[in-house]
Amino acid sequence: MKNVKKTAYSLLAITAILISIVLAVQFLTKNDASYSSKPKAAIVDGLINYPSSAFVNESVKILSDAGYVVDYIGNEMVTVDFYKRLPSLGYDLIVLRVHCGPLFRRLSDGTEIPEGTVLFTTELYDTKKYVGYQVDGDVAIAEINGVPNERYFAVPPWFFERSAEGRFPNSTIILDSCYGFYEYAPLMMAQAFTERGARVYVGWDGEVQAQHTDAVILTLLRALYGDRLALSEAIERAMSEKGTDPYYQSVLLFYPDEMADYRPGVR
């Protein structure tokens, strides 16, 4: 009889454990569903010689208050492979706080022809890495002003066409950096993102100082995701309050033009 009772108690204990597991799974699934239903944003922070915890903290707060799940991508994570996977990561908004610069092709006579811009990684250049990409011209070698004797991998616009994975889910792309639009190839980077699925792309038309672009982009984020303004209105407010870059006189632009009335902060 004692063995029967012991077996009965064991069954009850096992049943209780199973019920607890089921309830826990249901709870976690419910929370995961709630989590996954929220829009996702990424702050990609690759300005290695201009760190700003103030920008990161404030941008995360603005977007979190607006209902976004925000991922912070630190500079050690901004690699060629990261850019390759970026379209497939499901972000509704991506703020690219990374270096961006002109790309030139050198001819046999030494002449350099501008070919658009590149997004810098924080990955030091190595002749033995990404050999296929190097041969095909899908990565470039970049140097950061003020960082002597160091070269980094960078990705040109066509990298997203030929080498990236997946598609952006109608994402808003904000480039918190120089040369989002470049006079010799003004739409190359913008088109690279929109042709890969992004809905709208925002960037500067030339060089810009880090402190100034951070201030303007924070104002833009508040206007878009706090006050829910239309894109053109938000950019107008940001430029009105903070102005063009005081040294380079660069201005903030967006692409495509038909997105003027788009409200990224409204779902």
SSE order in H/E notation? Answer: HEHEHEEEHEEHEHEHHE
The largest β sheet comes out as: 6 strands, mixed
When the domains are counted, the total is: 2
Rg for CA atoms: 23 Å
CATH class of the largest domain: Alpha Beta
Task: Specify the structural class.
Answer: alpha/beta
Choose one word for the global shape.
Answer: globular
- Could you estimate the helical fraction of the residues in percent? 25-40%
Fill in the CATH topology of the largest domain: Rossmann fold
Mean pLDDT, all residues: 88
What's the arrangement of strands in the largest beta sheet?
Answer: 2-1-3-8-9-10
Strand runs, count: 10
Number of helices: 8
Q: Regions with pLDDT < 50 over 5+ consecutive residues?
A: 1-33
β content, as a range? 15-25%
Specify the CATH architecture of the largest domain.
Answer: 3-Layer(aba) Sandwich
Cα distance, first to last residue?
64 Å
Please explain how this structure is put together.
By secondary structure, the chain is α/β, with parallel strands linked by helices. It folds into two domains: 1-37; 40-259, Rossmann fold. It has helices spanning 2-37, 53-65, 80-85, 131-136, 157-162, 188-194, 210-226, 231-242, and strands at residues 40-45, 69-73, 93-97, 100-106, 112-124, 140-142, 152-155, 172-175, 200-204, 252-255. A six-stranded mixed beta sheet has the order 2-1-3-8-9-10, with helices on both faces. A four-stranded antiparallel beta sheet has the order 4-5-7-6. β4 (100-106) and β5 (112-124) form a beta hairpin. α2 packs parallel to α7 (210-226) and α7 (210-226) packs across α8 (231-242). The longest helix has 36 residues, at 2-37. The protein is globular.
